[in-house]
Amino acid sequence: MRHVIALDVGGTGMKAALVGSGGELLHRARRATGRERGPEAVVAGILDFAAELRAHGADRFGEPARAAGVAVPGIIDEEHGTAVYAANLGWRDVPLRALLGERLGAVPVALGHDVRAGGLAEGRIGAGQGADRFLFVPLGTGIAGAIGIDGRVESGAHGFAGEIGHVVVRPGGLPCPCGQRGCLERFASASAVSQAWAEACGDPAADAADCAKAVESGDSRALAVWQDAVDALADGLVTALTLLDPRVLIIGGGLAEAGETLFTPLRDAVRRRVTFQKLPEIVPAALGDTAGCLGAGLLAWDLLDTEPTGTIPTTATPPEVTT
Fold first, then answer.
1. How open is the CA angle 310-311-315, to the nearest 5 degrees?
2. pLDDT digit string, tens, across residues 43-77
């Protein structure tokens, strides 16, 4: 069976898959990055993991993978296949595409940004399927974005397109590690909500999920924290939709797991803020934590000029998950 290798490298863990030509997940695996051993160990772990996937695919499907795709965080030079910088992985200027190509026997390798890869998958085979313009915004530790245009994701002139988390929504507000004050992700990310709720309820272990549960139970303190986050998020999103005019706005990440506890007030807040702008459809992401792997797989298939199409993928057989 024709397949490609896909890897989604995060700060603490790696997700990997063998992806069929229809976007189906044929095999899945996970392991730690080993970042505590240093950046060289992280790179070695990626190469070893990819080689194991190649061997598994050849053994199981009778042929080696046609290509490979890898999605990583940080600053990416997609044109030259270089992972320029990732603070949480500790690396700089890693020629990851060349290293993987050499390790995998000269198969074509695509290197992409993790959020843009996830957005690519959501746009093509997930919640944005069929939309010519979409914006994917995952709300996690921080906030990023992927701008989808006609089946591809825009990287920008320097690889920074979509950094909506650093749109200033509260001028003079909380300082951000980026150097600005009042950035969106300091008010509306899952980590920001966790911090605000921990302070409001007096429990340092409380997090955003706890806040959402308290909102659902009618806790006034939680409602205030939640509404502050929703208002900040709506301000940032209206700025984005004014600039980009997306047909679909896809919200993912940990905060989106609150479901309508988030989406009902968010849709209302965005609706109140738009004037001349066309209100996009605001929907939850559909692919969950498989989006990055699927996006890496799509990047690999694109190298072969074979774009998977279809509905949200399901595994052809029950997926194998290893640790």
1. 100
2. 999 999 999 999 999 999 999 999 999 999 988 99
**The amino acid at 265:** P
Structural element, H or E, at residue 25: strand 25-32
What is the Cα–Cα distance from 226 to 237, expressed in whole angstroms? 16
What are 255-279's pLDDT values in tens digits? 999 999 999 999 999 999 999 999 9
- Mean pLDDT along residues 192-220: 97
Distance (Å, rounded) from C-alpha 116 to C-alpha 122? 10
**Separation CA 298–CA 318 (nearest Å):** 21
User: What type of residue sits at position 22?
Assistant: G
Other beta carbons less than 10 A from residue 322's beta carbon: 11
Residue 21's SS3 state is coil
pTM, rounded to two decimals: 0.89
Per-residue pLDDT band for 317 (boundaries 50, 70, 90) equals very low
What burial class does residue 184 get, using C-beta atoms within 10 Å of its C-beta: 0-12 exposed, 13-18 middle, 19+ buried?
A: buried
- Name residues whose C-beta falls within 8 Å of residue 215's C-beta, 6 or more positions apart in sequence: 222, 223, 226, 258, 261
Closest CA to 21 of 322, 318, 309, 317: 309
Question: For residue 31, what is the DSSP state?
Answer: E
How far apart are the C-alpha atoms of 182 and 169, rounded to whole Å?
6
pLDDT class for 91, splitting at 50, 70, 90?
A: confident
Do strands 91-94 and 109-113 pair parallel, antiparallel, or not at all (unpaired)?
unpaired
Strands annotated E in 233-308: 248-252, 281-284
**Mean pLDDT along residues 232-251:** 97
Q: What residue type is assigned to position 219 of the chain?
A: D
Angle at 4 between CA 286 and CA 312, to 5 degrees: 20
